[in-house]
Amino acid sequence: MLQPLAFRMRPTKIEEVVGQQHLVGPGKIIRRMVDAKLLSSMILYGPPGTGKTSIASAIAGSTQYAFRKLNAATDSKKDLEVVAEEAKMSGTVILLLDEIHRLTKPKQDFLLPHLESGRIILIGATTENPYITINPAIRSRTQIFEVKPLDEQDIEIAIDRALTDKKVGLGELDIDLESNARLHLARATNGDLRSSLNALELAAKSTPADDSGVIFLTLTIIEECLQKKALTHDKDGDAHYDVISAFQKSVRGSDVNAALHYLGRLILAGDLPTIARRLITMAYEDIGLSSPAACARTVTAVQAAEKIGFPEAKIPLSNAVIDLCLSPKSNSANVAINNAIADIEKGGFGEIPAYLKDSHYKGAEDLGRGIGYKFPHDYPNDWVSQQYLPDKLKNADYYEPKSNGRYEQALKEQYGKLHPSKK
């Protein structure tokens, strides 16, 4: 049986991994492990189709260690025992354990001594947050790395490889992929390379060649094979970002009807990840402290939309957009943190006052740590005047309160009481 294109195109060495350069690029942590052949067990977590299995496969190929793949949910302890026996005979086995967050305690207890001995190099893969879902006994014996969605340039590289590779790709076929169709393949899957490659293969294998033997893949064909519509059939390929930009600016400008129009475009494109990310960003960037309740409602609406999926997801999303449009606006928190970061980047560090430094260790008092610190709860109204910024920055003023909503108006009044000079 012919394996899917995404499976066939998996890298056989670390240099072939597409994306994830923060982990596998020259000088980065996983590349260093491979180059030195000093591998440690690890957990890779991130969205589907972003390269967790590819990284494991590439590590095995580059180090020439045996590579085995199991699923923590469906494979038994007996399957783990087989891998352990192989490790005893061959020296080292790299085990990719998919859905590691579903590893049962008996399987975990069996694995632990083999991880300790180094016979099995475990590469756990999960879409869940390992700090929440994975047992501390496993976490303490692994390094945890986040695998991020691929950007469109990464996916375009993989598409081009697939079109030209005659051994495992589609290079034996004479394929003419329209530029806007290629762009849609790279963008519409939101960083899921597996979906992009499998849609490309379906399009190529299901589209008849013309009389000269050329398979023409148009945007319409790719839309059908991806089951995702392009935002618009523009020639420049800018529509994707134009719609997102117009969406945020319409919400920021409190134009409900325009915001719903652009939300509708994104919904028809099936682009729930972009909508979710943009809504939460807008809530905290543009509404912020003027209405924290609206921010919380937006997060809840996004979670509901992600849980129920399209088409019903349009309902909580519409609720959130109308709520944000008609909420008072304030970017004071965003401006404040940007000001603070800009100050730090210019060298605005300064020495932390000694009375604020950690004093919970032997010898701290001899170093003057914590001496003279005023504990606010020992004073009336649980507040006492005290310098917290370094001397170099003691007059820094990052936050400029606004009063566009009841909540931030209250914050402004409290800020004025605490800092009378900044009223």
TrEMBL record:
InterPro entries: AAA+_ATPase, AAA_assoc_2, AAA_ATPase_RarA/MGS1/WRNIP1, ATPase_AAA_core, DNA_pol3_clamp-load_cplx_C, MgsA_C, P-loop_NTPase
Residues of the AAA+ ATPase domain: 38-150
Pfam families documented for this protein: AAA, AAA_assoc_2, MgsA_C
Keywords, ordered alphabetically: ATP-binding, Nucleotide-binding
Cleavable signal peptide: none
Keyword presence, ATP-binding: yes
An example Gene Ontology molecular-function term: ATP hydrolysis activity
One BP annotation, GO: DNA-templated DNA replication
Similarity section: Belongs to the AAA ATPase family. RarA/MGS1/WRNIP1 subfamily.
Full protein name: Replication-associated recombination protein A
Source organism: Dellaglioa algida DSM 15638
Organism phylogeny: Bacteria, Bacillati, Bacillota, Bacilli, Lactobacillales
